[in-house]
Amino acid sequence: APKPSSGPHKSRECLPLILIIRNKLKYALTYRDVVSILMQRLVTVDGKVRTDQKYPCGFM
Questions:
Q1: Ramachandran region of residue 41, left (φ > 0), alpha (ψ -120 to 50) or beta?
Q2: 3 in a domain, yes or no?
Q3: Residue 26 counted as domain residue
Q4: Does the pLDDT value for residue 43 go beyond 90?
Q5: Record's InterPro entries (predicted)?
Q6: What's the domain count of the chain?
Q7: Any domain includes 32
Q8: Whether the predicted pLDDT of 1 surpasses 80
Q9: Nearest to 37 by CA among 22, 23, 15, 55
Q10: CATH code, domain carrying 42
Q11: Contacts for 6-14 with beta carbons within 8 Å, 24 or more apart?
Q12: Mean pLDDT of the region 26-55
């Protein structure tokens, strides 16, 4: 599993964006699919476009 990059959440309390898109939301089947979705700038987190596939997303 990819390790989240440094960011606003602790590493124990977050998941990288790629795992959320691929495993939780089931928007993509592969890592490459997720990268293409992110590079099209279709994903926003907290109102900002995120293109880093390892961006740490916290749980709500």
A1: left
A2: no
A3: yes
A4: yes
A5: Ribosomal_eS4, S4_RNA-bd_sf
A6: 1
A7: yes
A8: no
A9: 22
A10: 3.10.290.10
A11: 6/56, 7/55, 7/56, 8/56, 8/58, 9/56, 9/57, 9/58, 11/56, 13/58, 13/59, 14/56, 14/57, 14/58, 14/59
A12: 95
Per the structure, the complete domain to which residue 41 belongs is given by 11-58
Q: Tell me, what amino acid is at 41?
A: R
Whether 11 contacts 4, CB under 8 Å: yes
Banded pLDDT at 11 (limits 50, 70, 90):
confident
- Does the residue 17 lie in any domain? yes
Task: Identify residue 2 by its one-letter amino acid code.
Answer: P
DSSP 1-60: -PPPPSSSS-GGGEEEHHHIIIIIS---SSHHHHHHHHHTT--EETTEE---TT-EEE--
